[in-house]
Amino acid sequence: MGWNGQVALVTGASRGIGAAIARLLAARGASVAVIFSARAAQAEALATELGPRAIAVGADVGDADAVVRMVAAVTAALGPISVLVNNAGIAVPGTWETYDAEAMARMRRVNADGVIHCVRAVAPGWIVTDMARGGMDAAAFAERVKGMAGRTMVGRVGAPPAPAPRPASPAVPPPAARVPDRRGHGHAAGARGRAPAPPRRTGPDSVSRGAGAFTPAGWQPSVPDRNHPRRRVRGTSGG
Question: Which stretch of 24-33, 83-92, 159-168 has the lowest confidence by average pLDDT?
Answer without folding.
Answer: 159-168
